[in-house]
Amino acid sequence: MRTRQILCPTDFSETASHALRYAIEMANFYQVGLRLIHVVDQPVGAENYQILAITPEELAKSMEDAAADKMRHLLSDLKSELPMETVIRRGSPIEEILADAVEFDVGMIVMASHGRSGLSHFLHTNVAEGIANRAKCPVLVVK
User: Fold this and answer.
1) HEC profile for the chain?
2) Residues in contact with 7: Cβ distance below 8 Å, sequence separation at least 6, in sequence order
3) Measured distance CA(92)–CA(143) in Å, rounded
4) Which of 12, 60, 62, 77 has the fewest CB atoms in 10 Å of its CB?
5) 69 Rama class: left (phi>0) / alpha (psi -120 to 50) / beta
6) Residue of 26, 12, 128, 30 whose CA lies nearest to 75
7) Dihedrals φ, ψ of 110, to 5°?
8) Is the separation of the CB atoms in 88 and 38 below 8 Å?
9) Residue pLDDT, tens place only, 50-73
10) C-beta of residue 106 within 8 angstroms of C-beta of residue 5
11) What are the Cα distances from residue 130, in Å, to 31, 33, 97, 126, 139?
12) Is residue 27 exposed (0-12), middle (13-18) or buried (19+ Cβ within 10 Å)?
């Protein structure tokens, strides 16, 4: 952990920004780089049942472009001298974050939990829980 970069997934929410502050603090403490990742869900659609005027591929590309703009804005707000990498991936957030962590041999994942409970927790995939349960490296979940 002490020599490998920290992976920080973001959905650009306030909670994710809070987790990013923890990730920056830890990266500064250990003097390691920071890797920011955003995962765009792959839109589901059938060519035979198109209701929209655009294809799922075009929608995904548009979502990636919007995420890239948000990532640039997020980076411009940061006042840090840390070595930073950014990546935008497409697919299942849990699978893509875990794959990135393995591919880049990160030392730790620092991410936000949106703290859902009850029916909301049941109906929505809990990404933080999925990452914490399956990651091969330490995971810090920030509320």
Assistant:
1) CCCCCEEEECCCCHHHHHHHHHHHHHHHHHCCCEEEEEEECCCCCCHHHCCCCCCHHHHHHHHHHHHHHHHHHHHHHCCCCCCEEEEEEECCHHHHHHHHHHHCCCCEEEEECCCCCHHHHHHCCCHHHHHHHHCCCCEEEEC
2) 35, 37, 97, 100, 101, 104, 106, 108, 109, 110
3) 22
4) 77
5) alpha
6) 12
7) -120, 120
8) yes
9) 555 677 778 888 888 889 888 888
10) yes
11) 28, 24, 10, 6, 11
12) buried
- The single residue listed with the structure tokens 């049942």 is 49
Please write the tens of the pLDDT for every residue from 97-136: 999 999 999 999 999 987 555 444 444 568 999 999 999 9
- How does strand 108-112 pair with strand 34-40? unpaired
Domains of the chain, with CATH numbers? 6-142 (3.40.50.620)
Distance CA 132, CA 143 (A): 14
Q: Do 36 and 72 touch, CB atoms closer than 8 A?
A: no
Residue with the two structure tokens 């490998």: 4
Assigned token pair, 67: 């995420």
